[in-house]
Design brief:
Blueprint (H helix, E strand, L loop, with lengths): L18 H27 L17 H28 L2 H6 L4 H12 L13 H25 L5 H6 L3 H28 L1 H9 L2
The protein binds protoporphyrin IX containing FE.
The site of protoporphyrin IX containing FE has 21 residues, from helix 1, helix 5, helix 7 and helix 8.
């Protein structure tokens, strides 16, 4: 008698990333890319430092065009971010996936990663480095939105602008948060390509 005649089938593979995580993740990725590209074009109109971004890697063509892109993607980023964070808290995913995390586990996993001994077999479990990176990038998302609001509407959000030390400092904070996100993306996308099954899981859920 075969497994088929007994109607025995392989157990369905466990869902690693539920649908809402995948939808929010990819909407966020698209919105962030538009925010960064248009933000660089806005920066070029009044650079904070002694360099500008090449126009080939910016979005919007000129200041007004870039601002339109930036403010359009801003709504997508914020609404999607609120949905992701709310569901992350309410469903207990953040508590289960991102906590606990402590310095001991972090240093042990950094050492394991440096000696190529960090296992990627169990995709349903984040190692301490991933936990810290994901918590850090969620926090950076809060900072970039808050500093963005304080330079967009410094009169309406004057307490927020004052919290950042004024309009000019808020601009530097906004730039620093952008740089942190770009640095995260370089590492994050490289790791996703090095471990392709993690990329597959973020697309198909399994
Ligand atoms: C654009 C290219 C991107 C690619 C290819 C990508 C790929 C991935 C993959 C494969 C995972 C699952 C990895 C794992 O199992 O550890 C993941 C998770 C995650 N990514 Fe990305 N990502 C991208 C952009 C972003 C951006 C722009 C952000 C935020 C600024 C981001 C934040 C996150 C977070 C927070 C998680 C964990 C989600 C959770 O488990 O709730 N990603 N990403």
């Amino acid at each position: 008698m075969t497994a088929e005649t007994l109607h025995i089938s392989a157990p369905p593979r466990a869902t690693i990333h539920p649908g809402w995580v995948r939808v929010c993740h990819w909407i966020n990725a698209l919105a962030i890319l538009v925010m960064i590209g248009s933000g660089w074009q806005v920066y070029n109109a009044s650079p904070l430092f002694g360099f500008s971004f090449p126009s080939t890697i910016t979005i919007g063509g000129w200041l007004a065009g870039a601002l339109l892109w930036h403010f359009a993607a801003m709504w997508v980023l914020v609404i999607n971010g609120l949905v992701y964070v709310t569901l992350g808290i309410v469903t207990g995913r953040f508590r289960r996936k991102l906590f606990p995390v402590g310095p001991r586990a972090l240093f042990a996993d950094i050492r394991a990663a440096a000696t190529f001994k960090l296992s990627h077999d169990d995709l349903s479990h984040y190692n301490a480095v991933q936990k810290v990176l994901y918590l850090g990038i969620i926090l950076t998302g809060v900072v970039i939105v808050a500093s963005g609001l304080s330079i967009w509407k410094p009169v309406q959000f004057q307490e927020l602008t004052a919290f950042f030390g004024g309009y000019d400092t808020a601009r530097y904070v906004h730039f620093a948060a952008m740089a942190a996100i770009v640095a995260f993306l370089v590492v994050h996308v490289s790791l996703a390509l090095v471990v392709p099954k993690s990329l597959r899981a973020m697309i198909t859920g399994r």
